Predict the structure.
Amino acid sequence: MNATERGARRRPSSHRRVRIAAAVVAAALVATPIVVRADDPADAADLVVRVGQLHTGDGKVLRDAVIVIEDGRFVSVTEGGAVPKGSAARVFANAVACPGFVDAVTQIGLDGGAAESPEALTPDVRAADAFDVRHRDLKPTVRAGTTSIGLLPAPVNVASGASAAAVLRADGSAEVLLRRGPPVFAFQPPALDNARVPSTAAGARAMLEAAFAGRAWTTSGEGSIPVRPAALEMLAAMKRGPSIVYADGPENARIAVQTLRAQGLSPTLVGLRSAWKDVARVADLRVPCIVVGLDPSDPIGLLEMPGKLAAAGVDVSFATGAPARSPRSLRLSVALAVANGFPTAQAVPAVTSRAAVALGVGDQVGRVAEGRRADLLILDGEPWELRSRVLLSLAGGRIVRDAAAEAEASK
């Protein structure tokens, strides 16, 4: 019996897996924090946390980890280490910690999705310019454990504009971390629309190939399609680097990846909600994929797709696509994927470090490591289990939620 057959025998039925993942169970294990007093509070670090298990965000798991935070950043992370002398520590002996979640694909706080719809090529649009750093959706997002978000222009145009990345503060406001991130393209509706040019992925490819060469696309029936000089100049200058591209099905994904690779761009595919019918074709493209907005009502094939992509060696991340979907559904997406075959060893990287890398901010967020922003979740179970309750969460080293303090205040 090979490994695939053994795994198939161990896995529960499709419908049972969906029921398991969709169930939100009441908190089970409660890890009570024990405060170790500092000998000299004046010399104490901003915060020292000791946890039974730490997912660092890059696939590593540390036992009995000591995390030291100063000035909003991780200054040391050690396994089985001692609490620094003179420091007060919050100890969660039976708890599990991980980086704050990174939601790579959102339009939270973007006026109109930061989209300019009349033209097909708008690479000069910047999502950061339309971002409301005090939008009402940011507070519930950070309280749900997401501490960084990707801001993507809505996929209304073939060249949609520049992405951005923002970090969330404990008070529910935000700060733009990267104003001009990877360029965003779209090879799916509404960017492809029968009411305008281009209407097909092949047309989008021809339009972009012309623009990358510094000229407007000329069709046989309609002549030259007007392109603003600023947009043309920007596209012609794109010769290398990361990019993000929306694609719904495998054929559009193939055309998109080939088009961008030919220009020297390294694409990450986003969306793929119609790609589950032929996962192998997507996997064969060998590019990172961000699966957006999984829900218990989705077809079982879609829920199984992340696991199949991972088994084929594809780096998979998850995102909500908020606010079109709930800004609080990132844990639900990864829980559904895990229940349907996605490996638990990849679950935390899929909502932390991988998403941060796709946004171009992997050196600043998405990992519990020295020098990174101190975004941290501590739960009484694994992060991908919906029954796990958040005991303590930090954004930039500041407390967002403290279950012990909230329980004490409610007495």
